[in-house]
Amino acid sequence: MKDGFIKVAAATPEIHVADCAFNADNILALCREANENGVQAVGFPELCLTGYTCSDLFLHNILLNGAKEQLLRIARETAGMDLLIVVGLPVSVRGTLYNCAAFLHKGVILGMIPKRNIPNYTEFYEMRHFTEATDETEEGMEWDGQEFWIDPKQVFRCTDMPEFAVSAEICEDLWVPNPPSNALAQAGATIVFNLSASDEIIGKAAYRRDLVRMQSGRGLCGYIYCDAGQGESSTDLVFAGHNVIAENGTLLAQSPRFKTGLTISEIDVRRLDYERRRQNTFRTSDVYASNIWFDMALRETALTRPIAQTPFVPSDKGDLASRCEEILTLQATGLATRVRHAHAKTAVVGLSGGLDSALALVVTVHAFDMLGRDRKDIIAVTMPCFGTTSRTKNNALTLAAAYGTTCKTIEIGASVTQHFLDIGHDMDDHSVTFENGQARERTQVLMDLANKTGGMVIGTGDLSELALGWATYNGDHMSMYGVNSSIPKTLVRYLTAYEAQRAGGEIGHVLRDVLATPVSPELLPPKDGKISQKTEELVGPYELHDFFLYYLLRFGMEPKKIFRMAQRAFRGVYDDATIKKWLTTFVRRFFIQQFKRSCLPDGPKVGTVTLSPRGDWRMPSDAVSALWMEQCETL
Fold first, then answer.
1. N or C: which end of the chain has fewer CB within 10 A?
2. Are residues 103 and 191 in contact, defined by beta-carbon separation less than 8 angstroms?
3. What pLDDT, in 10s, does the model give residues 230-258?
4. Is 537 helix (H, G, I), strand (E, B) or coil?
5. Vertex 202, ends 197 and 203: CA angle to 5°?
């Protein structure tokens, strides 16, 4: 539960139809296994104490009493477990039969949620036995001295972590146009269990998985689908035990079908709570549910859920090509729209031979192709100075020529030297003035060329550099349209690699060499003809910074939680001291460099994380980082 991670499980026990004692034995066995694995909330299938396929036996008191006795037994025998247990059973109330999800904790029946939507079509004939619950269904119960409510509007909430709020719906409830989980999520439930007995037919598994995933996204919640399996009657149906765990639209885990046992992952309830605060359209004012409180000790949750090292990059590499094409199209469309609106005769791109400017040129070429414009109207400018190496200069020239653009080489060494003479700066002083003087001269050249040719300057800086402030104020920080402004460095690499493969030939060859070149602003003189100034040695690995950026901005995570997640994601790649060092650097730079982001040029948003001061990120330039830095120092 530390940092908001709740370990959850969907359980499919082997059952015997109408054998409540056997079924309880197997439910208890899985409860013990879940408890041993640190699970904090476990759900079982619909009517699993009796079996879903009991048919007219549901009308028999002997079966109903057997289910009641075995639920009380499960409560007694799990009293020593700090584990929230959700079990399906039939419950008779004054001549009415409900299909219920019972919530147990430390031997106590906290309450029961009855099924609202009773299917009665094709293979389903539940209305023969069960009654639909409504908003008015509120039945007070007393079993063996325990008092609780049967009520579909209940949320079970942890006293010491109120974000850990659990509710349930049952099978068909998910498949209707307006699932009850919508209202339950709006009432505060961050975790919804679905106790299900979903029979298996061709193609249903994929549909079921997508339904669960999308419902978790719609409800901004964790959704755990607990499916019936082995032992249900095979008279007409087959049950596969297809368990699925999803969080806010992302699939976390699913079981192999036709198996029994536990499917385990972790739901980040604090992340969900943040997301609900962020999305002001997630309204709760008109939704009511009873909060039923339970006490659970806060303890460390071992993480097993997948945590990608590169969260900005699709985890499914099969989708990578289509995602890259989509991103390039978004960038190019934004630029094409601006070029058309501005009646720009040219697009001026400063081409360094590095990654960012290469991608900016790629996007500009795509935009001009969209517009049906001659690529000769793209002016690619390389501006060698004190730190330029032959490798990057040659790559810049070759790439510009291969794309058929107009290429210019403008040596700026003399201009910068004169400027240093004008301001009295010693040429041997390789301080920030030495570096920034070159960057600002390059920007002046680009701006003046754009004015001269009736064009616009295309910005090359990426999202990672904006987060770190790794740009010269009013130098490469400025342009007339920043096409890479929402592309982090890790994604820049994938986009460039995609273009290399797509274009092939000389373009592909040059882009692959650009990818192999160390990231550098090349503002300090080279050593033995090679780059002497390597960005990632100065500010840290971009894969770490992009990881920090994603979780800080997208989910508002605290440094201690980001550190913990980075430990898991980069295990065997970076040690704890290295992660802490660069996380501290990131937080410090992110705060002190906000002034650069407060006056950024326009640029297209292509992902969920951007730093545009007009859109996604508004922050005072003089905000104090003390609270965040304090956490970094105590890691």
1. C
2. no
3. 999 888 889 999 999 999 999 999 999 99
4. helix
5. 90
Mark whether 46 is an active-site residue: yes
Helices (H), 343-409: 355-371, 390-402
Q: Considering 20, 46, 126, 435, which one is annotated as catalytic?
A: 46
Residues in the chain: 635
* Residue 494, C-beta contacts closer than 8 angstroms, at least 6 positions apart: 313, 320, 324
Cβ-contact 195, 170 below 8 angstroms: yes
Q: Which of 7, 68, 115, 489 is catalytic?
A: 115
- Longest CA–CA span in the chain (Å) reads 99
Q: What pLDDT is stored for residue 285 in this prediction?
A: 64
Say if residues 119 and 155 touch (Cβ distance below 8 Å).
no
Q: Which amino acid, residue 380?
A: A
Residue 58's pLDDT is what?
96
A 10 A CB-CB count for 530 gives: 10
pLDDT at 284: 74
Q: Could you give phi then psi for residue 593, rounded to 5 degrees? A: -100, 10
Decide if 477 contacts 596 (C-beta within 8 A). Answer: yes
CB of 192 within 8 A of CB of 173? no
171 noted as active-site residue: yes
pLDDT attached to residue 606 = 94
* Distance (Å, whole) CA 58 – CA 266: 35
Q: Which residues contact 226 (CB under 8 A, 6 or more apart)?
A: 10, 11, 12, 43, 44, 45, 46, 86, 193, 194, 195, 196, 243
Burial group, residue 504, by CB count within 10 angstroms (0-12, 13-18, 19+): exposed
The DSSP code sequence of 539-580 is T--HHHHHHHHHHHHHH---HHHHHHHHHHHTTTTS-HHHHH
Question: In this structure, are residues 15 and 48 in contact, taking their beta carbons and an 8 Å threshold?
Answer: yes
CA–CA separation, 250 vs 222, rounded Å? 9
Neighbour-count burial of 574, counting CB atoms closer than 10 A to its CB (0-12 exposed, 13-18 middle, 19+ buried)? buried
Tokens for 76, please give them. 């007694």
List of the chain residues with pLDDT < 70:
285
pLDDT of residue 165: 98
Domains of the chain: 2-294 (3.60.110.10), 317-633 (3.40.50.620)
pLDDT of residue 321: 87
Which pair of structure tokens corresponds to residue 573? 């790649």
